[in-house]
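Margin note: ligand = nicotinamide-adenine-dinucleotide.
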Amino acid sequence: MDEVKESVASMTSRLPGFYKRPIAERLQLVADMAGLTTEESEVFSVSSGLSSGEADRMVENAIGIFPLPLGIAANFRLNGQDCLVPMAVEEPSVLAASSNAANLLRDGEGIRTSSTEPIMIGQIQVLDFPDLDAARAAIESQAEALVAASNRINPRLVERGGGAKRLLVREFPDTALGPMLVLHLEVDVRDAMGANIINTMVESLAPEVERITGGRVRLRILSNLADKRLARAEGRVKIARLARAGWTGEEVAQGIVEASVMADVDPYRAATHNKGAMNGVDAFLVAAGQDWRAIEAGCHAYAARDGRYRSLSRWRIDGEDLVGVIELPMQVGVVGGVTKTHAVVKVVHKILGFPNATRLGEIAAAAGLAQNLAAIMALATEGIQRGHMSMHCRNVVAESGAVGDEVELVVAELRRRQTYDHATASVVLAEVRAGCHQKVA
Ligand code: NAD
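Resulting structure:
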């Protein structure tokens, strides 16, 4: 494992012309870089990545598997170290867009990332106590003992430097059920996502909480608003590098800042702005075997933490640079879940150089920042549709009924006309079949 970490740490994520190579060559290149065995490379083919037997062990009522394309986003550089970023996603243009933006953000040390400690929150709902103030005071006076009791449940976690750290009491004096207390057990879950660790702890504390408060415990479950476990990514681009046909660098940078401000003030825009960032985050999380629903829920709740739903990223101009920051609650793990059982996920972790949970979360945040930059850069200039539809073109052509060599001929003609609707695809297919569009040698 150490050898893999070393060789992955010294590799480059610059992969010029990667997108033009046949899929087998791309895989071979990544296999050579990450030192994958033939067996490990073979997990990326549909038939061997996940057997139906494994699917049956993972979920109930399984009838098979559901494959997604897996790609590599190139050009990522985090804190001075290059990184190939695997992404599993069905939407065209996510991999191209994040690779392009990562290239803009890679100068110097590249994207700078940091994280808080991996603290997750477990909640215990308490009802029907005789007196709110007395119940609160009783829990607060026993908080240390309750934390110590939680740690007796998972001594191995404590040995690893984690474990329960704090117990807080939150009160809701006036609910539809009368007064309610919600206890927060804060647990350092180290390299785990932490849901099962936390749920076991809060469930076992419940009887003692009932005894101490004289009340009744109902829910005992982690909170997916993991606002104590944040990953942050900050990227810089020289404004001059943003220039493109018809636009100066200053105009593009200003457009990006204007888009950022709109997403900060308008929840209707913030939702779409954040969806764009989550395109990169989720595609990476799926490939890395993470519970992306948990992280999605956490990110959107975090986006609304001051009472209004806002953007998860901010862009500003700083001298000659455009600077972007994204901060996300990041409940990821490299132990537990499917990280050690899913054949493809295991090889993805090898390509990543076996990161710890903190590094994995920071790669996710960097993927979100790059994807966000790509999206708002396109929106703030020519609009997103031209690039997106050009990428989507192959799907439209496939739906028109084109087969074999016809596909490339119809795609080429639609790109020439810059029209990507189904009706035009059908017309062009008929023209191809009538011999109107020949392959250019
Ligand atoms: P898990 O249940 O597999 O527990 C992790 C285990 O790994 C623990 O026993 C821990 O002691 C051990 N471990 C070994 N090395 C470790 C290290 N370096 N750091 C930390 N622990 C180490 O995994 P989990 O992370 O507790 O739970 C994750 C799973 O729970 C995911 O599959 C998730 O989908 C699911 N889940 C999520 C929710 C939710 O998000 N609301 C609710 C329930 C379950």
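Strands lie at 70-78, 81-88, 112-115, 119-127, 163-175, 178-188, 216-223, 230-238, 313-318, 321-329.
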